[in-house]
Design goal:
Blueprint lengths: L4 H13 L7 E6 L2 E6 L16 H18 L6 H8 L3 H8 L6 H9 L8 H6 L6 H13 L13
Amino acid sequence: MTVQHENLESVIATAALVPSTFIPMKLEKRSGKKIGIPVAVTACKLSPVSRLPNKSLVTCLARAFYWQKLLEEGVASSGSEIAQHENLDPSTVNELLRLTLLDPHIVEDILRGKQPKRLTSLWFTRNPLPVEWRVQQILIEKLRNASEGDVVSGAVHD
């Protein structure tokens, strides 16, 4: 059977547009029937060092930057107005808005799951956040190097 050049191109073009999902499977014969068994994909497993992003912290960041945009565009006039619209306590909104002052490198680390383990949304609500990015970086390093029982607050002194 010969395939004409024009038809082959249209088949390839059509195949490229069809969404597909690849699930690694191994076919085995059991009880006289072939069944598919998922293959353990070791390449997709996370290394012990890497972690998934903290979902709660990422959600807090997203909300904070969204609310900041509402304030900048004049859609909302204050954190209290946002809180009323979102059915939240005004202090919650204002605490989360502080996250927009984070050093962009820290935000990147959070989105990649590379922030210190102890840096959580709860930590941000209980500790002051330095405004200067350099001081924030020092604080993050202190959190990264702290032992399990150590208390690390947002107050950083050189």
